[in-house]
Amino acid sequence: MSTRPRRLQRRLMGVLALFTLAVAGLFGLYAMAFMYATEDAFFSAMLQQEAAAQYAARERSGRWSTPAQGFMHVYENTGELPDGLDQLLAAEPQRHELPGRDGRHYHLLALHARDGARAWLAAEVSSQLVVRPRRQQVLGILAWSALGLIVLALLLGYLLARRTTAPLARLVGRVDGISAQHWPQDLAQGFRDDEVGALARALQALLRRLHAFVEREREFTRDASHELRTPLSVIRTAAESLQNEALSAVGRQQLQHLHQSALQLQQTVTTLLTLAREEETSAATAAPAPLLPLLERVIVEQAPLLDGKPVEVHLDIAPALASTVPASVLHILLSNLIGNAFAHAEDGAVEIGSSDGRLHIANRAAVLDSAAAQRLVDEPYARREGSAGFGLGLVIVRRLGERFGLDLRISLDEGAARASFRLTPGTGGTGAPPPAAE
């Protein structure tokens, strides 16, 4: 439930740690550069001080004197420079800090006397170096300091991220708890007047509008369905009563069409009423119910669709076979699928059987291309040519199959329409292109 806020916390901590590492690395680089620059400035100052003494001695005696520091020497020409410094100086005449042999290190300063004499003041400073011998130690101190700063940054980042994302995590928890049965009325309660609070209030307003919209739709569908059931029952009863009257052949045919249309419309209204119920039908708590009696009832209800057709119904279901699909849902599925099979069967037989925990319904139907078949199952009110239905049956079947994880499969192969679904609800359903629609 709080996975995303925790990811946000880790990102904040990671960004702060990377920033701290970058600052520590930059600080360490500056520190090392400062130490080297300070050391070089110290040697340069010593050379400048000795150079002043050499110029004074040259003025007094006309020659260069011996430097006061034992690590300094005066060389009147470059060929006298030790450790091959003359070659390095010839290659880089502007360079005044040169490496020698065996770890020796030199600083050079050119001397130009007033009488035109020239010389080189060389200081071998390997024994005077401070930074280089302690470089590993300094780097270790800087590394441990950087590690300590990173740990501190992670701790502070964790506290800051936790404090910052706590309201967001609380909001995510409340949003995760939203369902068709639970619409929170206090989603924005307890949040400060900040960005998260503004988001919570916006979500609260949106949820209220959505809830009001869903309630209006449910009430309309429920009320409309209830209002339609009574006149439909009257129409169906009147049609059944008129069947016993002396009517012409045309009148009986029209009366039969009226009775079938009333039956189909009554079934559609019942389906819409079931789908519009406020409470969700639970498949997990449904007790296994015998399948054969329900199938026989649905076949009898849909039998008028076979009147005048050379079609037989083959029912091969074991009496002990049961299904854990809710009875109301199973009745809707069977009524639509068997009704489609009866309505669009041309000849031969409609076969209803079971195998591998699935119920199978097959019939002979007019060939339908796959694109048109997919449109019938996906688009509401889509009907095949000549259909007397409303184009809702297979769409409702698909929705119920997805909701209860029935793995609904509908296919068309060489003119044979086949439909099957699981008798035990699972985690999800699939639909294939249907052979026909109501």
Write the layout of secondary structure elements.
Blueprint: H1 3-61, E1 72-75, H2 85-91, E2 97-99, E3 105-112, E4 118-124, H3 135-176, H4 195-242, H5 249-275, E5 289-290, H6 292-302, E6 311-316, E7 322-323, H7 327-344, E8 348-355, E9 358-364, H8 370-378, H9 393-404, E10 409-413, E11 416-422
Parallel strand pairs: 6-8
Antiparallel strand pairs: 1-4, 2-3, 3-4, 5-7, 8-9, 9-11, 10-11
Catalytic activity: ATP + protein L-histidine = ADP + protein N-phospho-L-histidine
Organism: Tahibacter harae
Domain Histidine kinase: 223-427
Share in β-strands: 5-15%
Low-confidence segments: 278-284, 386-391, 428-438
So, the CATH homologous superfamily of the largest domain?
Histidine kinase-like ATPase, C-terminal domain
The largest beta-sheet arranges its strands as 6-8-9-11-10
- The overall number of domains is 3
Report the C-alpha radius of gyration, rounded.
47 Å
Task: Identify the CATH class of the largest domain.
Answer: Alpha Beta
Helix content: 40-55%
Largest sheet, strands/sense/barrel: 5 strands, mixed
Keywords: Kinase, Membrane, Phosphoprotein, Transferase, Transmembrane, Transmembrane helix, Two-component regulatory system
GO molecular function: kinase activity
Protein name: histidine kinase
Enzyme class: transferase
Provide an overview of this structure:
A hairpin with a 2-residue loop joins strand 8 and strand 9 (358-364). The chain has helices at 3-61, 85-91, 135-176, 195-242, 249-275, 292-302, 327-344, 370-378, 393-404, and strands at residues 72-75, 97-99, 105-112, 118-124, 289-290, 311-316, 322-323, 348-355, 358-364, 409-413, 416-422. The protein has 438 residues and is α+β, with helices and mostly antiparallel strands. The protein is rod-shaped, with a radius of gyration of 47 Å. The chain contains nine helices and eleven strands. Strands 6-8-9-11-10 form a five-stranded mixed beta sheet, with helices on one face. A four-stranded antiparallel beta sheet has the order 1-4-3-2, sandwiched between helices. The chain folds into three domains: 3-135, no CATH class; 178-280, Helix Hairpins; 284-438, Heat Shock Protein 90 (2-Layer Sandwich).
